[in-house]
Write a structure and sequence with these properties.
The chain is mostly helical. About 55% of the residues lie in helices and about 5% in strands. It has a two-stranded antiparallel ribbon with strand order 1-2.
């Protein structure tokens, strides 16, 4: 009996493919996923799949743009935390959470078929409102040194 994973349920299933059991004891079942067609040929062991030259360059440029955009968001988060610490003397770990609320607000606005620029304005407005609420409640109490 070899345990076979089917969805989220693990069952014991007699199988003649005992040699295909992986180190965890689960049966490895290669095959199609969804509507994928079987490949024409599997290729040799150690052979790497390659893209045509134009597609490879296009993918490289796209991944470079993706990396720069994600890196710029991280840089802005770091600058924001540094500026809050330098100006207020309070370490605000909610900075990324405010950015996340604004990003999700923009996404939900776009999902509700609101045009791009008003959706971005809604995201910025949500971030500003959360920042003002956080400043007037938590950060003001920390700056004054008073008790809650």
């Amino acid at each position: 009996m070899i345990p076979v994973v089917t969805g989220l349920v693990t069952t014991s299933n007699p199988s003649p493919a005992a040699d295909k059991a992986g180190p965890s004891g689960l049966l490895y079942c290669p095959g199609k996923l969804g509507n994928q067609a079987e490949p024409e040929s599997r290729g040799e062991v150690g052979e790497q799949a390659s893209l045509p030259r134009g597609e490879a360059m296009e993918q490289f440029i796209q991944q470079t743009i993706n990396g720069l955009s994600v890196g710029s968001v991280f840089a802005l988060l770091g600058l924001g935390v540094t500026m809050v610490w330098g100006v207020l003397g309070v370490l605000n770990f909610a900075h990324a959470q405010i950015l996340t609320w604004g990003a999700f607000s923009t996404w939900f606005a776009l999902d509700a078929d609101i045009p791009v620029l008003p959706a971005i304005a809604i995201g910025v407005l949500v971030g500003v409102l959360i920042s003002v609420a956080l400043n007037s409640t938590v950060i003001a109490a920390l700056r004054s040194g008073g008790s809650w």
